[in-house]
Design a protein that fits this description.
The protein has 373 residues and is α+β, with helices and mostly antiparallel strands. The chain has helices spanning 3-10, 47-59, 84-93, 99-112, 217-224, 232-247, 253-269, 281-290, 295-299, 301-308, 318-321; strands at residues 20-28, 34-41, 69-73, 119-130, 132-133, 139-140, 146-160, 165-168, 173-176, 181-183, 188-192, 194-196, 199-201, 204-209, 278-279, 316-317, 327-330, 335-338, 346-351, 354-359, 366-367, 370-371. The chain is built from 11 helices and 22 strands. Strand 21 (366-367) and strand 22 (370-371) form a beta hairpin. The chain is globular. The N and C termini lie far apart (55 Å).
């Protein structure tokens, strides 16, 4: 799924365009016990509650494609009878009306979701009449040919509210506030099937993780059975290893800064594309050619790439391997952060025979808010 397709589904999880038919949920305590369950037609819930749920559902479709929102594929064996994809298909096709399937889903989550505190599993069923689009991109709601039927699962931490004081309006006094258990923003979740090319894709799903650096591999392996793409953290570390190993002695300050600048320019040029910029093996090689890799090192590039990148054709999402918000320089004692488009202000040069980071400044300088003359 790309950015536009995610946005289209996100619009359905609102009061104005609600396509949710049914909701089932289960509150699980820290001892992995089911404390309470809910099975209802979604629109039978009180209006104030539905608004809170809409916020949760939309939060689990937030973030960047390839970082927080990860497209995953099912191996063929999972689609056979008894496989994980087959189980999710049966769950979707039941429209969440088969209690035994729902209980089995809860049991699988509880068995494989490694979380030491209380949490809330929410499962919804949705059906979307996909409007056709005219040649100029306008949606024609009276020309729907297909229905996208899907389930969404979200898992939210449940934590005690903070201790504090509150105003009791009946007694007209300030008193100790009662602490209660609060459902927080989702940590993880998924939509199945995927909505690819604006239609149902039963061979994939869209996975959400709040923290892209901590993807629960056991949960994905056992519950979903999907192939897990390289995480954002692994992509960054692998890309860095390829650059360092290929450039060798030429991996100097100016070269790395130029690579950083080149990547940021490429990301800026592709920012309006629905699919995030992905760097393949040849694009990375050209990046190295443009930034000083020697012929000898380039001859070693293929082997270096193969050693660092297990899946040779998977590529790297550019925004995962470079920080688009900050140009960071780290030494043993100092960390310097600069806006990416201001990296030209920083140079590395010898001062009195010692290597130094030199930053060009304007006349205006402040130290802890004090203007320096």
């Amino acid at each position: 799924m790309n950015r536009k397709e995610v946005s289209e589904i996100k619009k359905l999880l609102t009061p104005a365009n609600c396509c949710i038919s049914r909701i089932c949920s289960c509150y699980v305590d820290s001892e992995k016990n089911k404390r309470t369950e809910l099975k209802e037609a979604f629109l039978s819930l009180p209006e104030e509650e539905t608004f809170k749920y809409f916020t949760i559902f939309k939060n689990s479709l937030s973030g960047s494609i390839g970082k927080n929102l990860i497209n995953m594929r099912f191996p063929m064996l999972t689609e056979a009878e008894g496989g994980t994809q087959d189980f999710l298909m049966r769950l979707r096709d039941s429209q969440l009306k088969d209690d035994s399937l729902i209980e089995e889903f809860y049991n699988r989550v509880i068995a494989n979701y490694e979380y030491a505190e209380n949490y809330y599993i929410i499962l919804i069923h949705c059906a979307y009449d996909i409007p056709s689009k005219s040649t100029d991109g306008l949606e024609m709601y009276d020309a729907s040919d297909f229905v996208y039927e899907f389930i969404q699962c979200t898992i939210c931490p449940v934590k005690l509210s903070k201790a504090g004081l509150c105003y009791n309006s009946q007694a007209n006094i300030i008193e100790n506030r009662n602490r209660d258990w609060v459902v927080e923003a989702p940590e993880t979740g998924f939509i199945f099937p995927a909505f690819t090319d604006r239609n149902t894709d039963i061979h994939g799903l869209l996975y959400y993780t709040k923290n892209p650096y901590q993807v629960p591999e056991r949960f994905i392996d056992e519950l979903l059975g999907c192939v897990i793409p390289m995480s954002a953290k692994s992509q960054k570390e692998t890309f860095q290893a390829i650059i360092e190993n290929t450039l060798g002695e030429r991996c100097d300050f100016e070269t790395v800064k130029n690579i950083h600048d080149s990547l940021n320019e490429m990301i800026e040029e592709a920012k309006d594309e629905p699919v995030p910029l992905t760097l393949d093996k040849n694009q990375i090689k050209q990046l190295l050619v443009n930034n000083g890799a020697t012929r000898e090192k380039l001859e070693e590039y293929d082997q270096c790439y193969k050693e660092c990148q297990e899946e040779e054709n998977s590529g790297f999402i550019a925004s995962n391997v470079v920080n688009t918000k900050s140009f960071e320089i780290k030494t043993t004692d100092v960390i310097i952060k600069i806006a990416p488009d201001k990296s030209y202000l920083v140079k590395r040069q010898l001062v009195n025979g010692r290597p130094c980071i030199v930053i060009e400044t304007s006349e205006h300088i402040e130290i802890n808010g004090i203007v320096v003359k």
